[in-house]
Predict the 3D structure of the following.
Amino acid sequence: MPVTAQAVFDRALTLMDEVLETGVIATETPAYYKTKAIQTLNILQLELLPITAVFIPINDLTEPLQVNDRQAYLVLPYGLAAHLLINDDLTISSFFNARYDELKKKYSSVSTPEPIVDVYSVLGVEG
């Protein structure tokens, strides 16, 4: 089952320490976070999807994301948290963005490794 935008949003808010001890998202969380999250998640998904993918933007947090589960649960919350905090706390936003960039490189499906073909026999192996 695809991961919804709400699941990523909740994880981002947890990273941002917007969660109560009971595990419930704090009610005083700014309402504009949800609006900003939708458009930000559309942008972040495009960064992670292969260039050949047909992208379908989300319009609501209840909609499923197109990235794989690992990217949704591990990578996107850091990118979303970075964007949500950029006007509130630049230091923490920078930390989340650096972590997002690191994970994006590791789990991006934009490029796939291909075997190296030794066409000039520089490795001493005949092809």
